[in-house]
Amino acid sequence: MSNIISVRVNETEKEILKKASTVYGCAISSLMKKLVFEKLEEEYDLRVIEEYEKEKADGTLELFDFDETVRSEERRVGK
Fold first, then answer.
1. For residues 1 and 21, what is the distance between their CA atoms, to the nearest angstrom?
2. The pTM is what?
3. Which of 13, 52, 66, 71 could be stapled to 9 by a disulfide with Cβ–Cβ 3.0 to 4.6 Å?
């Protein structure tokens, strides 16, 4: 079952959301859900990049060879 979350907006914000939902071809609720999750994904990606850059700058970044990792995992699971 879906949950409902209410968001209060003023009349100007409502009109902006109505116009945007028309552009995207969806309901306001679908637009808001889409935009919220896109924003969360962008923020997560930025944090991962920041962590990578910090570890690289600090000299603590540990990299793994893809092929060796696959072979090691195959040995571990017995393939």
1. 24
2. 0.70
3. 13
Cα 30 to Cα 25, 26, 33, 34, 45, distances in angstroms? 10, 6, 5, 6, 23
Say how far residue 35 (Cα) sits from the centre of its chain: 10
| Among 10, 9, 33, 38, CA closest to 21 | 33
Degrees (nearest 5) of the Cα angle 42, 46, 47?
120
Show pLDDT as tens, one digit a residue, over the chain (79 residues). Answer: 789 999 999 999 999 999 999 999 999 999 999 999 999 999 999 999 999 999 999 999 999 999 999 999 999 888 6
Please tell me the distance from the alpha carbon of residue 28 to that of residue 40, in angstroms, as a whole number. Answer: 18
